[in-house]
TrEMBL record:
The keyword Lyase applies. It catalyses: L-ornithine + H(+) = putrescine + CO2. Residues 48-280 form the Orn/DAP/Arg decarboxylase 2 N-terminal domain. Homodimer. Only the dimer is catalytically active, as the active sites are constructed of residues from both monomers. Keywords: Lyase, Pyridoxal phosphate. Residues 42-377 form the Orn/DAP/Arg decarboxylase 2 C-terminal domain. Its cofactor is pyridoxal 5'-phosphate. This is ornithine decarboxylase. It comes from Hibiscus syriacus.
Length: 403
């Protein structure tokens, strides 16, 4: 099996900033903003964290080329760093392709990984030479035959939903087992080149035996293509679903075991993946300001300047919780010793569901104190909206650990 090694770490720290240094940096931004009477929320992007994650990826999966899923967080500095480190990109639309190409990335480092693409986007991909895409329907094959017949194809297959993922993709994406052979035949008849298979076990997966099930389906598809007399398939795209931290080693081991079992001897097989969350999540930290306060009996209630319509929109879908660190004026890092209160934290909009935290223990806060949220890079700013004029897209990002 083959993989492409990146231009790893030519310069710059391969370590994330320590929590202590990150908080120190945030305090310095807060002080400078206060001088300019600004109290907007802001992100901090740690380039050292990205380098460290790319390093971890290739340490664990040296043969799997990552194509970062731009949808997860399209911050331009983040994308630039990924490009410099040699990753590819998974783009879902013309705009995402434009963004990546504008960084000087060559089109052969892009997979147009959207199984149903608007025709103008397909025409654009043809124009700029993005020549690899996914499909799972006859209709998509027909559009590609008409508008981009030179495009190489990965058949996206539905895989068993055994990963316990927060976001499951099976009801919308992927050819069912009974659809695979007819789709491969249709691609033959249309003289289109299917060169591989792709799947996604679901985002924020927790059970990585799902890779064994998914890679088995992929192998069945490789065998079916061979039986139909298609040129030998040569790409296996294992999608996303990875999270950073100890879970990643578990996921990588499951992938390697499944590959050994189902593709033990496959010279020339290229392995790729489309991780989003793995690279983006821990690279970004969000700092918010307390903008309002109300005390109701024993409960302290606060409003902050970002919330569920903005960066914390995942609270609507993930059934997840966030945790935060308070930064209190004049209490440099000594909040741990303070008495805490049962607290509720609201987002700034008039949406009654804009509630970030409930029953969370916090020391007593005042307007202009800060709440810092770590691990805020995945599907945060990219999925927030501008409801009530609170513009998620306008939240600035400060960069640390540049080299
Ligand atoms: N690839 C495709 C086609 C996706 O739809 C997604 C997420 O929606 C991803 C990759 C990234 O997944 P993750 O962030 O779980 O790695």
């Amino acid at each position: 099996m083959e993989g492409t090694q990146p231009n790893l770490m030519e310069n710059g720290s391969v370590k994330p900033l320590s929590k202590h240094d990150l908080i120190r940096f945030i305090r310095s931004v807060v002080i400078s903003n206060q001088k300019q009477h600004e109290t907007n929320p802001f992100y901090v992007l740690d380039l050292g964290a990205i380098r460290s994650l790319v390093h971890t990826w290739f340490h664990n999966l040296p043969l799997v080329q990552p194509f970062y899923a731009v949808k997860c967080n399209p911050n331009p500095v983040f994308l630039e760093e990924m490009a410099a480190l040699g990753t590819g990109f998974d783009c879902a639309s013309r705009a995402e392709i434009e963004t990546v190409l504008s960084l000087g990335v060559s089109p052969d480092r892009i997979v147009f990984a959207n199984t149903c693409k608007p025709v103008p986007h397909i025409k654009y991909a043809a124009e700029v030479g993005v020549n690899l895409t996914t499909f799972d329907s006859n209709c998509e094959l027909e559009k590609i035959r008409k508008w981009h017949p030179k495009c190489a194809l990965l058949i996206r297959v539905k895989v068993p939903e055994t990963s316990g993922a927060t976001f499951k993709f099976g009801s919308k994406f992927g050819a069912l087992p009974g659809e695979i052979i007819p789709l491969l035949r249709a691609s033959q008849e249309a003289k289109l080149k299917v060169i591989g298979v792709s799947f996604h076990i679901g985002s924020r997966a927790i059970n990585f035996n799902a890779f064994e099930d998914a890679i088995e389906v992929a192998k069945t598809t490789f065998d079916a293509a061979a039986k139909l007399g298609l040129p030998k398939l040569r790409i296996l795209n294992i999608g996303g679903g990875f999270t950073s931290g100890p879970k990643f080693t578990e996921a990588a081991s499951a992938v390697k075991l499944a590959l050994q079992k189902h593709f033990p001897d496959e010279p020339g097989l290229k392995l790729m993946a489309e991780p989003g969350r793995f690279f983006a999540n821990s690279s970004f930290t969000l700092a918010t300001s307390v903008i309002g306060k109300r005390v109701r009996d024993e409960v302290k209630e606060y409003w902050i300047d970002d919330g569920v319509s903005g960066s914390m929109n995942f609270l609507k879908y993930d059934h997840d919780e966030v945790i935060c660190t308070p930064l209190i004026a004049g209490k440099n890092g000594r909040t741990k010793e303070m008495k805490t209160w049962n607290s509720t934290v609201f987002g700034p909009t008039c949406d009654s569901a804009d509630i970030v935290l409930k029953g969370f223990e916090l020391p007593e806060l005042e307007v202009d104190d800060k709440l810092v949220f770590h691990n805020m890079g995945a599907y945060t700013s990219s999925r927030g909206n501008d409801f009530n004029g609170f513009k998620t897209s306008a939240i600035p990002t400060y960069i640390v650990n540049k080299n």
